[in-house]
Design brief:
single chain, mainly alpha, 15 helices, 0% strand
Length: 350
């Protein structure tokens, strides 16, 4: 869908390094507090609707597993505020109630869809569900949840065909992610999976919206998606090595090199965002939102570099304690460092 922005934005090509674009610590705190307050305001809706949507689909009197609820909340918070919210924020738009409802439904089905691959269900069966949920006969409890929520989303969309086509892309990258169970997987393949899986999930959420990002926006969000998945992989080094899941940071972790890659990607992202034709206010909010994640990744990489001697060794990583590999973002001093990292990343230029 093409978007006419002529009446909704100001054409402003301020760079992140011009005075009106400069990000301050008070500005970061204000934006993040407002984001936190918005998330808290949405929580009652989330908790109520999750129970309403899942209660008819859970067999007998089964309750939702607490770990699944945590995963659903993570999907929902990222999709609502980071993926879709940041896109609408820089345009000056507000998500409609229908868009918010569909974001929740897709966030709700996503972890169950992921589980279908992990639980050994035949790939062709999952592909059939993805391509034609209306004609699919679910048998597994998680298939019922995915199929029901998927069909309800399709019924509400103006263009369900594009949504299904994009979901097939998500299926493809979920299939590719199974390569992460093979210790001989190449660094190039892991990098492709890291970016492709996250980026196509972003696009699936965009297909729920009335507006669709421009080509330049999608190019920028591909970089954002890759950085987000990289951040997840860096924070999950301990968990992944315990479960024999291989990623760039745990199998090919030259942490000095990865830190340089991260900073190079940040510079390119800043340039892409600066070049988009939006009012500076929306771009400042976006850059803080994006780099709040990237700053955590940078801190975690620096910790891995210190505690491993700079290089990943899968056998040694398996022997290390959780505290050595997981960056504690609840620590007060770490939060202070994080704020200054956010500020520094916001000011980096190509």
């Amino acid at each position: 869908m093409s978007v006419d922005r002529s009446e909704t934005i100001f054409h402003n090509r301020s760079t992140p390094f011009s005075p009106e674009y400069r990000v301050t610590i008070p500005g970061i705190l204000t934006h993040l507090f407002r984001l936190w307050r918005t998330m808290k305001r949405h929580e009652p809706y989330f908790e109520t609707r999750v129970q309403e949507l899942l209660a008819p689909l859970l067999p007998g009197k089964n309750q939702l597993n607490p770990s699944n609820l945590v995963r659903i909340r993570k999907y929902w918070e990222l999709s609502l505020h980071f993926i879709c919210g940041s896109f609408y924020e820089r345009n000056g738009w507000k998500l409609s109630r229908r868009e918010e409802e569909n974001i929740l439904r897709l966030s709700l089905l996503s972890p169950f869809y992921d589980d279908l691959f992990e639980e050994g269900i035949d790939a062709e069966r999952i592909r059939s569900l993805t391509a034609n949920p209306q004609g699919f006969q679910p048998a597994h409890p998680k298939e019922i949840i995915v199929c029901t929520l998927y069909c309800s989303i399709l019924e509400s969309l103006k263009d369900p065909v594009s949504f299904k086509e994009q979901f097939l892309q998500v299926f493809h990258w979920q299939q590719r992610s199974l390569e992460q169970k093979d210790i001989t997987v190449s660094e190039a393949a892991l990098t492709e999976i890291m970016i492709g899986k996250s980026y196509h999930s972003f696009q699936l959420f965009y297909r729920l919206l009335e507006h669709f990002p421009s080509a330049d926006e999608l190019d920028m969000m591909r970089r954002v998606a890759g950085l987000l998945q990289f951040t997840n992989d860096v924070f999950d080094v301990y968990k992944d090595v315990q479960h024999n899941v291989y990623t760039v940071p745990n199998l090919y972790g030259d942490y000095c090199k990865l830190r340089k890659w991260l900073l190079d990607e940040v510079r390119l992202l800043n340039g892409q965002l600066a070049a988009l034709p939006y009012h500076v206010k929306g771009k400042k909010k976006n850059i803080i939102t994006f780099h709040a994640m990237n700053a955590m990744c940078l801190l975690a990489l620096e910790q891995l570099e210190r505690n491993t001697g700079g290089k990943a060794d899968i056998a040694r990583l398996r022997m290390m304690h959780r505290k050595e590999l997981v960056c504690d973002m609840d620590d007060f001093l770490m939060k202070i460092k994080w704020l200054w990292k956010v500020k520094a990343l916001c000011g980096m230029k190509e």
